[in-house]
Structure formats: C-alpha cells, structure tokens
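Q: Predict the bound structure with heme C.
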Amino acid sequence: MALLLPCGLLGLAVYKGDWQNTMPPKDAVPSDVLVVILSADQNGHLTPCGCAKPMLGGLPRRASYIRPLPSANVLKVENGDLTEALGRQDELKAETTLEILNELGYDVINLGEKDFRLGLPFLQALEHRFQGALLCANARKSEGSSHFKEYAVVLRKIAGRSVRVVVIGLLSAQFAESVQALNPEVRLEPPAETLQRLQSEIVEEGEVYLLLYHGPKAEAAEIARAFPFFHLVVHAHQDDSNGANGEADRIGSVVLACSGKDGKHIGEAQLSREEAKGKWRVAGVKYVALGPHFADDARVMRIKQIYLQRVNEEDLLSKVLRLPTANGDTFAGSAVCRSCHMHAYRIWKGSAHANAMQTLVNEKHDRDPECVPCHVVGLDRQGGFVSREKTPGLQDVGCESCHGAAARHAKNPNVKMPKAGAASCNSCHVPEHSPRFDFATYWQKIQH
Ligand code: HEC
Ligand code: HEC
Ligand code: HEC
Ligand code: HEC
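A: Predicted complex:
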C-alpha cells in the first residue's frame, strides 16, 4: 500500500488551514520559484448555479485569482473531466471551457475519462483550438503511436534562468473499458508501461518533472513510488478535503496534489531550487476556496454569455426528454386553482416559488435546461412547461409542481387529489441546490 504521510512530518511547508478568504496580493509570488496552478474535475461547472449562497467556484472567479499572477514563472494546468460529457450542452461547455482556458493562458490540459465521451473527432477539434498542449500519453493507436501529445516541454523564466518543465499526461487504466467502448480506435495502455517507455526518452528534456495523472490518489501514489523522478504529481477524482485539512501528501520526494472537484477550489504548488545541489523540490501546496470575494472576471463572463446564447439559439430547452405525467392527467396552471383555493393561492403567490422563473430571467438562465426543470411546472412531462411565451401559466414553481397534474380535478372537484407530502419537495430541494433544506422549517414558510 502507498505510504501517505502528512507533509508536516517531513518538513514540507503547507500554507495551513488554507481556505484563503482574501485576494492574493500582486507580489505574493516570489520570482525565484516555479508556481503551478492546478485543478481537475470541473465537471461542467462554468459558474455556480447560485441556488444557495454563498457558493464556491466558477471560472470567472478562477480568472480573478489567476490574472494578477506573473506569467514568467507560473504554469497553469487542468487535469481532465472538463464536463460530464453527456450531450450537446456539454459539447458547448467543453468548447466554452477551452476558450476560457485560452483566455487565461493555460499551458496544459490532460484528458479525463469523461472527456473521452465527447469522442475522438470532437477532442481533436478541441486540441486544434487549444493554444497550449492537450495531453494523454497512454491513449494509443493500434500501431502504437499516440492519439494526443504525450508530454509538453514548457519553458519558464525563473530567477533569470530559463527552466525546462516537462509535463506528462496520463489516464488511469481503470477507465480502459469505457474509453475503448466509445472510441474503438483507442487502446488505453497501462500508465506504468507508458512511463517506462517515456522515461528513457525524456530524461534529458528538462529539469522539473510534473505528472498530470487523471486517476485517484492511491494510484497516483503507486506511480510516484515507481517513478520517483517526478517532483509533483497532480491527480484527480478526489473530494474537497485537501484544502480543509491543510496537508499535502508525499511519497519520498514526490508531492501529490489535487484541488478537489467541480471547480470550487484552485490549487497552487510552489517549487524551489536548492542552489547548492541544483535540485528542485515542492516547497508547498495551497488550496484556495473560490468564494464570492473573488470578483467575476468580465472577459470570462462575456465568454460565458456567448455560451448561454448558443444554448438559446440551439433551443436545447425544447429537446428535453418528456415522460407522461404520473397520473395521466395534464396541467391546468396555478391561476386556474385560484377561484376555489383563494387561501392557498394567496400564500403561494407571496412565496419565492411564484417568482422562480423571474430568478432565472435575472440570471439569464431562463432557457437553460440545466436550470429550468426546478424553476417551473413539469418541464420533463408531456403537457408541461415549454417556454414563457407558449406556456406562461406553467412558469414558476406552481401548485402542480407539488400536487401533480390537476386539470381533471380543476374541472371536476369530485376527482380527488392525492396527498403531496414531504416527498414532493425532494426532486428540487436536493443538497446541491438547497443545502439547508429541512422540511419542517421550509414547510412553515409556505404552509397553506
Ligand atoms: C435540482 C433543482 C434545481 C436546479 C437544477 C436549479 N435550481 Fe436554482 N434553486 C433550486 C431550489 C430548491 C432553490 C431554493 C434553495 C433554497 O432556498 O434552499 C433555488 C434557488 C435559486 C436561486 C436563488 C433565488 C433567491 O433569490 O434566493 C437562484 C439565483 C437560482 N436558483 C438559479 C439557478 C440557476 C441559474 C440554475 C441553473 C444553472 C438553477 N438555479 C438550477 C432548485 C434548482
Ligand atoms: C372548481 C373549484 C376547484 C378548482 C378550480 C380546483 N379545486 Fe382543488 N378542490 C376543490 C374542492 C371543492 C376540494 C375539496 C374536495 C374534498 O374535500 O373532497 C378540493 C381539494 C383539493 C385538494 C385536496 C385537499 C385535501 O383536503 O386533501 C388539493 C391538493 C387541491 N384541491 C388542489 C387543487 C389544484 C392544484 C388546483 C388547480 C390546478 C385545484 N385544486 C383547482 C375545488 C377546486
Ligand atoms: C419544482 C421544484 C420545487 C419543488 C417541488 C419544491 N420547491 Fe421549494 N423552491 C424551489 C425553487 C426553484 C425555489 C427558489 C425560488 C426563487 O427564489 O427563485 C424554492 C424556494 C423555496 C422556499 C423559499 C426559501 C427561502 O428561504 O426563501 C421554500 C420555503 C421552499 N422552497 C419550500 C418548499 C417545500 C416545503 C417544498 C415541498 C413541499 C418545496 N419547496 C418544493 C423549487 C421547488
Ligand atoms: C411547494 C409545494 C406546494 C405548492 C407549490 C403548493 N402546495 Fe398545496 N400543499 C402542499 C403540501 C405538502 C400540502 C400538505 C398536504 C399534503 O401533503 O398534500 C399542501 C396542501 C394543500 C391543500 C390542502 C390543505 C388541507 O387542508 O389539507 C390544498 C387545497 C392545496 N395544498 C392547494 C394548493 C394550491 C391551490 C396551490 C397553488 C396555488 C398549492 N397548493 C401549492 C404542497 C404544495
């Protein structure tokens, strides 16, 4: 088993307790260190949804973190799973993310298993547009060569010297089956085999060695033990606990780092060179929570607005899958209930639910299939919300969002309504979007 020691025991400086709540001062980065800005598993979170406050993350805030950093000695890497890659919207997100990473001067992207769901031709188009290097050393063709670049050699100017940094990208072999099933042209070679081969090729290529390993920490640790020439191994598939406990892991002299998932945090590793021996070592790793104290970068927000425009133009909202309603009835709209249920209607009208579409309009997400389902009546049901123009009576969270389709009952009250119950809240008040939800306290606010 891998031996994971908290760095403190080994004298590796880590910026303690590092959910930094302030912007870094512009001179925070000394010019005699190599800085690696790292992240992985953004999983399509371009910006936080904003359903609860405060929420962490988003590329516009990451941009505010990155912009003040100097470019001479800073390297920016993204370690895969840019999106969930589950459909057209994620293709748009992948292109948008790439454009933002270009805008921020990213040097390297390593591919994750989800990225491979986009398919080889799409990934090659992304590679073409990326101004840095798109890596995956172990996605091989049948004759043995690689589909993507295996490594990049990046030059940085540190303390007046030109330093060659070698960055290798690998994908965990545990995804071989799923990657190959979707991309028959790809054979995912076991990472250790790839490294064995590359090791002899790159020994003279640089003086700092960085591995982007798209796989979990335990596997990254194995690799670090077998290939101790790496200075830093950035891995993936980890929760957000690294920053909270303020510790970095190391295997011998190799430091492992991961900033968690969904782009809520950003990692920053600093490497320094011991003048006497000429050897590089990781001096520290910090993880910064991208909270609201980081402003939304205006240029990145503009790129995101173009993404939303494309979602609108392609009318992705009209393409959501629709199932029959649970009771076979259709929707009447909340206004129809008013005449007979004045008391309930008045309470509903004064609640946040009756304003849920306006919230999305204000956020410019009112035609975004990733938001609308929870802010209207029955988007995923036949006869449910289509658009604000076509089905104005079904915008907002209405009576039938909880009580179910009720057109028959509204025409003939002898048709009984079933209980809505506490379970009726669960489809929308999920932890990701309503972390403080508790039925008793929430129901009190809308009881009718
Ligand atoms: C899974 C359901 C769900 C999805 C998807 C969803 N929301 Fe929400 N949203 C909610 C719920 C529930 C609340 C109320 C949370 C609370 O107060 O506990 C909410 C609240 C909000 C609020 C805060 C309203 C206020 O004034 O307090 C905003 C803004 C918002 N959502 C925007 C969005 C955007 C933008 C998206 C898409 C990117 C989105 N929502 C997707 C369920 C959802
Ligand atoms: C024409 C009048 C009328 C309209 C319109 C109407 N209802 Fe009713 N509703 C009633 C009556 C009367 C009852 C009570 C029936 C009973 O107690 O058996 C009732 C009962 C209910 C109940 C069950 C209450 C209980 O005691 O369990 C719910 C829920 C309900 N209505 C929801 C709605 C919704 C949602 C709409 C709009 C889509 C709506 N109703 C439209 C007249 C109406
Ligand atoms: C169809 C999705 C949906 C369902 C079902 C739903 N909600 Fe909501 N709820 C929302 C959204 C969206 C908001 C935020 C609306 C806004 O402000 O734009 C919200 C907001 C609220 C708020 C206001 C929160 C605040 O602090 O102001 C309360 C209270 C609430 N919901 C209670 C409930 C309860 C209780 C249930 C179940 C009986 C329920 N909701 C079912 C989507 C839903
Ligand atoms: C956020 C979810 C939600 C919304 C929105 C909502 N209700 Fe309810 N409603 C409930 C729940 C939960 C109950 C408690 C009884 C139950 O579980 O069915 C209830 C109870 C009722 C009752 C029965 C009251 C009683 O005495 O038993 C009526 C009638 C009713 N709602 C009508 C409406 C009408 C009309 C609207 C829209 C104007 C509406 N509701 C909006 C969730 C909701």
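A: Residues 267 and 287 are 4 Å apart (CA to CA).
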